[in-house]
Design brief:
This protein has 213 residues and is α+β, with helices and mostly antiparallel strands. It contains 2 helices and 8 strands; from the N terminus they run αββββαββββ. Helices cover 33% and strands 31% of the residues. Strands 1, 2, 3, 4, 5, 6, 7 and 8 form an 8-stranded antiparallel beta sheet that branches.
C-alpha cells in the first residue's frame, strides 16, 4: 500500500530562510570586497600623489641648489620685486655672470649675463615660477616696464605655486632680510615655497659665492 507523506511546511520555510540568509551574506561579502578594493585604490592614488608632489619639490630644490653652486667669485645676486597690488609682489632673483645657472640650453649664448628666477602672480592667484635669460638690453627693457613686458627666452619650472619667498642673511646684524637693498652682502639665501596640492610650505637654505655687486 502506497502511503503519501505530507510535506513539512516548517522545513520548507526553514530552507527558504537559509537561502535568503545565504544571499544576504553573499551580497554583504561582495559589497565589502568592492569597498575594500575601492579604499585600497583610493589609498594607492593618495600615496602616488604624495610621492609625486614630494618628487616635484625635491627636483625644484635640487635645481635651485645647482644654480647657487654654479656661482663663482665673479658672480653676484640681484633681487628685484614689484608690487602687483593687494600686498602681493612679483619677485626676480637674478644670477649675474653665472652662465651655468639653470642651464637648460637657453643660456648658452655669450651675451646672456643675467638669469632671473621669476615668481609671477597669475590672474587665478597662483604663482608661476620660471627662468628668464637676459642680455643687457633685455634686462634694461624689462626693468623699465617693471618686468611686465619681457622679451627674452623663458623656461617654466613650476606652473602653480601658492608661495615662493626669499630672504637673505645679513652677517652684520645676524638677521634674515627680505631684500638685498643697500650694502647687504649675503652668502646665504633662504627659500620658502609651497606647491599647489595641499603640501605644507618647505624651507631650504643655500650657500653661494658672492662677488662684488
Amino acid at each position: 500500500m502506497f502511503i503519501q507523506r505530507k510535506s513539512d511546511g516548517r522545513q520548507a520555510a526553514f530552507t527558504l530562510l537559509e537561502m535568503m540568509l545565504s544571499v544576504a551574506v553573499f551580497v554583504i561579502l561582495v559589497t565589502s570586497a568592492f569597498s575594500l578594493v575601492g579604499a585600497t585604490t583610493e589609498l594607492m592614488t593618495e600615496v602616488s600623489e604624495v610621492q609625486t608632489g614630494a618628487a616635484e619639490r625635491m627636483r625644484f630644490i635640487e635645481t635651485c641648489r645647482v644654480a647657487f653652486e654654479s656661482m663663482s667669485g665673479n658672480s653676484s645676486l640681484e633681487f628685484h620685486y614689484f608690487d602687483r597690488g593687494g600686498g602681493r609682489f612679483d619677485t626676480y632673483l637674478t644670477f649675474v655672470d653665472a652662465p651655468a645657472a639653470f642651464d637648460f640650453g637657453a643660456n648658452s649664448r655669450d651675451e646672456i649675463r643675467r638669469v632671473a628666477l621669476a615668481a609671477e602672480i597669475q590672474p587665478a592667484g597662483f604663482i608661476r615660477c620660471g627662468v628668464y635669460y637676459l642680455n643687457d638690453l633685455d634686462f634694461e627693457a624689462a626693468m623699465k616696464s617693471d618686468f611686465l613686458r619681457v622679451e627674452a627666452p623663458y623656461v617654466e619650472l613650476v606652473p602653480k605655486m601658492r608661495q615662493l619667498t626669499w630672504r637673505f642673511y645679513d652677517p652684520l646684524s645676524r638677521e634674515w632680510k627680505q631684500s638685498l637693498d643697500g650694502n647687504l652682502r649675503s652668502n646665504l639665501a633662504e627659500l620658502t615655497f609651497q606647491i599647489e596640492g595641499g603640501s605644507p610650505p618647505l624651507r631650504s637654505v643655500f650657500w653661494h659665492l658672492n662677488g662684488s655687486r
